[in-house]
Amino acid sequence: MAKDKKPRRPKAETPKGFRDYFGAEVAERNHMLGQIAEVYHLYGYDPLETSAVETVEALGKFLPDVDRPNEGVFAWEEDGDWLALRYDLTAPLARVAAQFRNDLPNPYRRYAMGPVWRNEKPGPGRYRQFYQCDADTVGAPSVAADAEICSMLSDTLERVGIPRGDYLVRINNRKVLNGVLEAVGLNPAEDQATADAVLRTIDKFDKVGADGVRQLLTTGRKDQSGAFIDGVGLGDAVADTVLAFMQAKGADAAATIASLREVVAGSPTGATGVDELEQIGALLAAQGYGPDRTEIDPSVVRGLGYYTGPVFEAELTFEIMDAKGRPQQFGSVAGGGRYDDLVKRFTGQAVPATGVSIGVDRLLAALRAKGRMDGIAQGPVIVTVMDRNRMADYQAMVGELRNAGIRAEVYLGNPKNFGNQLKYADKRLSPVAVIEGEDEAARGVVQVKDLVLGAKIAESASLEEWKSQPAQREIPRGDLVAEIRKMLRQEG
Amino acid sequence: MAKDKKPRRPKAETPKGFRDYFGAEVAERNHMLGQIAEVYHLYGYDPLETSAVETVEALGKFLPDVDRPNEGVFAWEEDGDWLALRYDLTAPLARVAAQFRNDLPNPYRRYAMGPVWRNEKPGPGRYRQFYQCDADTVGAPSVAADAEICSMLSDTLERVGIPRGDYLVRINNRKVLNGVLEAVGLNPAEDQATADAVLRTIDKFDKVGADGVRQLLTTGRKDQSGAFIDGVGLGDAVADTVLAFMQAKGADAAATIASLREVVAGSPTGATGVDELEQIGALLAAQGYGPDRTEIDPSVVRGLGYYTGPVFEAELTFEIMDAKGRPQQFGSVAGGGRYDDLVKRFTGQAVPATGVSIGVDRLLAALRAKGRMDGIAQGPVIVTVMDRNRMADYQAMVGELRNAGIRAEVYLGNPKNFGNQLKYADKRLSPVAVIEGEDEAARGVVQVKDLVLGAKIAESASLEEWKSQPAQREIPRGDLVAEIRKMLRQEG
Asked: Rounded distance, CA B45 to CA B37, Å?
């Protein structure tokens, strides 16, 4: 006989590393993404929404040695094909640019906003699903396309509420770095491994400083824990040249360009790279995106191996307090560059492309730190229920308020305990509660309770102030909309 | 020796059943969802964004007999847990309502918009990823919550552009159907299988008519292909009562309610159901949502088994032409109802809930059919490149246009072939092209080419008209923004 097993209840939990976003969090992000989309739209970029699911083959993360794709993505087998959730918005763009190359306008300017998924170990503030927000131009070989991305990035930051002076778009060029390596006798095209190692090393400049980078480029370095990190094995003269490149920023763009020309002397790739930087700088300056908003900065590296030309990064230059109350620079909120080889994977033909990705969560955090998101998500006016039989009257009140564009709702829980209704209003961050009992209804009036003022008074007011500034007052029923509009205006 | 294998290129393809959405498609959907969110916000609903990935356990689709979850979802094993892409927005809401029951306001009004995934066989117009847009109230037992959903649905349809008279929110109640079954001696609580079979059968009313439903409820029916469909096995008198219920709609709400009372006579469940319908009707009427917008209609069934009380459906009542040019009713674009048992799966305690889901693709199709989406996604003004060295000037022009809020871009492809630039403008649906060569620059003028007018003239104009209405004209460089604004206004 089968055992009489009590069915186990499912656990109400998100999978490990995933989370839910509530109310204001969603509203604030949508608000910001909407503003970004406005700027991208003005610049002629078209939205593209690819599906969350791609073939593993198209994403290009398949490891041939195992029967399961790379652990970095969420993947599964479906009718013999391996499918996966996209891990960024660039790989799907490359697939689209190849798949629809005969139908899309050329150049193709597109923007994309949406979640991506990473099958990585979650940590504090690190989730396995998060938003990306990208803009790219595919098919434009000219550096005018790179300059456009930089000016658009600048406009975007100002549009969402980062004032000029609080950010800087810093620009470098991979070709200059390759030129530096060429100038010292390496060939980055043939020795990609060394070029990548140099890239990874100079990306640590902020952390280990010039001396640390010099040690890591040459014979190696003992880190703080005492562990020894192997060096890249370059000679001292070569390491000096690389460091000279990173520190080539001069007093102005012309001085920087001049220093860079010296560092890459003798390398055709390097010369091309410096020319491109000069052109980007000139285009931006001519449009008014001068040194208060953009700058050539040879210390910008951008980790990704796939960049082939100009790279850029938007840095917020104001300070915020860290968890321990110490001021620190906010840092990078967006980055990108030119990648001319991604579409080639599919078609065999190189297609020039350049683009930028905004760190949605970081930029949101910055806007919150600057108080730019205050009031995006105001709670509704709550019409309380004193008398269950008068529900139609209460519904009529919220109807009038909504018609006037005021967010409003009737309390729909059990109305017996009035205190619960006010607690609910509190949880909803309601600015105003409306109260109409039998007595008020008979006299044609309602009570309006200013919950924002009420909270302030409860916090700090003396008895005198309490009396002179009553948070609750009686108004004619006919004045409901006008009075509440006035109260909201005072608070907004 | 290893063979020298040429690496195979990946296929640039979406997985089977998935698709990409471009430009206007994305813009139109976002525009509509933004308007819907405005109405939901006004009603006090808060956005909720859950992750795309849930545990299979929380979704509740796991079949215990197989080592792989239900084929209806995309699922995979991760560190011993089965994860899956959500197949709707209601299951994640039930999980959230259980997981955060101590923190959320009660009642909890939330809306959610986003993609869901179904591992089903794709077909024409049927994709494995599509949008849903839901609003639900969790924790409100009163039918005032159901009435609110109906009035909000009505407001939403008008907000997105379906005029009053072109839609109807039809309301029924599962309790009335259960009452009908009770009235004829069945017990739906004990014989769920029969109740479900009746539900599925009467859902076919539109297809097979009253006689067909009668046959299917009793002894069975031969369909058009000659195949015999087994009947539910009810007696004739029972079938008559069910049909009387479905056809109980009277000349007005009062008449419908009176008919329903007769049909469910003797059933307490049925009586409660009719009372609820009467209350919903009264609340809606008091708020002005009368018979021109809402109606009690006993023929509304809504397939899903989990509804426990009021059910509703928004139908568009205007005709559109089908693929063969025949007029047909547009039909249902949204539906929902009360489901009091979904959260119970997790907590063991019944939690009242009611909500609505809008068919995003169907509503979009309706708005496109009504011409409501025209002009949402206008192409950019294209500044052509006649002289590569004047790129900064061209960039200055688009900068001025954008500052005036006009979507504009410089052509960034290879500028050698001017015809290609105009073809590009055509593909972008550009309203205006700007042309400035060396000669124009020297004289301080630019050429503006009205591409919309140009297309019209090319289609239909006589030589006389061509001459009197030139699509291309010369204007002072300083008038660029003002002139283009004028041209766009004429076309908008």
From this structure: 9
